[in-house]
Design a protein that fits this description.
Layout (H helix, E strand, L loop, with lengths): L1 H21 L13 H7 L14 E3 H11 L1 H4 L18 H6 L15 H4 L3 H11 L10 H14 L8 E3 L3 H5 L84 H4 L10 H12 L17 H7 L4 H10 L17 H12 L5
Antiparallel strand pairs: 1-2
Length: 357
Amino acid sequence: MSRFRNALMSLALLAMAGVAAAQSTQFVGIGRAATPSEVAKWDIDVRPDFKGLPAGSGSVAKGQDVWEAKCAHCHGVFGESNEVFSPLIGGTTAEDIKTGRVANLQRADYPGRTTIMKVSTVSTLWDYINRAMPWTNPKTLTTEEVYAVTAFMLNLANIVPDDYVLSDKNMAEVQARLPNRNGMTTAHAMWPGNEFGGTKKPDTANKICMKDCTPEIKVASLLPDFARNAHGNLQEQNRIVGQQRGADTTRPEPKAGMSVAAAAPVATAKPENNEAKAAIALLSKHSCTACHGVDKKIVGPGFNEIAKKQAGKVDYLVGKIRAGGVGVYGQIPMPAQSLPESDAKKIAEWISKGASK
């Protein structure tokens, strides 16, 4: 028994020594050094020389399936997008693929610039899709799905054929056909190394000046009381993404010396709505919140707006969710959804009862 106890104590001491060794030496007592496995989870960038690109592959056909399920509702079936997001595909020609410079970028009269017109490296497409898409649930695509979606985008732009399989082995070949591959410059000091012909010369020639500085200008804005809530609560009219937060115009402007918390009315606790929580979780799971807010329009109408028009129509809502449609709330089409019928019914029941939070 004593041997067993001694073994346990030895293991405990080794574990404590490991933790102590992992403590930060730069900031004593604050945090610890990240382990190699933790660093690997965040170290996902892919460089223009394809360093960091994981092994794998994905076909154009597979990419079309992923695109229609997870990308088309924001970016359009053919990358043409909609009134909210800018187009991804278009504006390039076969001649651009030969020269590596997109001619339409030189035209002042060209109506708009798509992503495929501007991007100069395939790694940029792969890296951004991998780290940021879908925008409601980033980093959830598998490596195969990222390769496949990238291949499908390249196919839409006529860079690769319909039967192409993009992989880490042939991405350099595709890079040689990218329409704007020669449109990038490294003649600046924003790239830290010399791998791509960069320069260490600063991109500005400013000199630091720390004397005779002008006083700091403080900018502020306010609404007069009569206009404060004239167009509804500004706080509820902001998009659900980004850092901008509007003022709560249902409450008076906090006076000098009064904290925002002091000006806020005492909130009363609401009873927990388990049906709403379950429905909203399903909406997030199936990416419905990419286009619909609960009480506000994003791309499509808010669920509250749908609830007012379709109260009690559970079967109708199930059919519309699964089949998609256009024309009832505008001209931006909603593609058919592949979620299970049981999930669609739970969402429909919640909407039919008013879509409460």
